[in-house]
Amino acid sequence: MDAQKVDMFILTNAKFFESHHVAAIRDRLIAMDDSKWVSVSTIQFKDPTTSLIVSILAGSLGIDRFIIGDTGMGVGKLLTCGGLGIWAIVDWFMIQGATREKNMQKLQQFLY
Amino acid sequence: MSISRNRLYLIIFIACMAGYVWLIMNWLFPPVHHSKETSICLLKHFTNIPCPSCGSTRSLLSILNGNFLQGFYLNPLGYVLLMIMIAAPIWIVYDWIKKSQSLLIFYKKTEVFLSKKTVAIPAIFLILINWAWNIYKGI
Hints:
The complex is a heterodimer. Chain A is mainly α. Chain A has one domain. Chain A is 75% helix and 0% strand. Chain A has 8 helices and no strands. In chain A, helix 1 packs antiparallel against helix 2 and helix 4 packs antiparallel against helix 8. The radius of gyration of chain A is 16 Å and the shape is elongated. The termini of chain B are far apart. Chain B has 7 helices and no strands. Chain B has one domain. In chain B, helix 1 packs across helix 5, helix 3 packs antiparallel against helix 4 and helix 3 packs across helix 5. Chains A and B meet through helix 6, helix 7 and helix 8 of A and helix 1, helix 2, helix 5 and helix 6 of B.
């Protein structure tokens, strides 16, 4: 794929991924067929900042986990008052990474 | 993709063990009073509003003491927790011995099942009703 398009994609979407994934994503996209550009460029990613805000406000109900698609973990947090409050606090620091991992999984369906 | 078998099992196992330790602690050293000031729940601690699952420790203890109705009255979610806490460790040990991953498959199926609109909306509604009931009871 055109390097210019790929760099544009990286510029706009780098914040949605772990930094160590970005270089690999760029290589993959350049090697990818041009016909997939439309589907790749229109994927909706979850914003890590949003999930952090939700985690701080409603983390003990597990809503942050539900939002990023981790339904099972969300139920776990909901049923235990956010893991007795400990898990809720741990997730304030984990949720941004978890969101980026989820975004990577979403993109991977198109990359491979 | 997504969560790996060992990681999931470890998380569930640690969570269950923490639950048991928490239960035993509350059973051996029952808190003197369950007022709104003494709580581990963050939401209740900061806002004084109980969360949907507040009271499930007391509910579980009542169920284990044989007071099934009181357990239901304190928090119906106690029964859900009881089932998970009994089933999950046995299932993990079974999978571990058999080297299978039936719990992981079940977990993923449950996630898909709970994400369906026809399931999710009633489930959210039930949780909200439980929450309202908790606030009304002043758990």
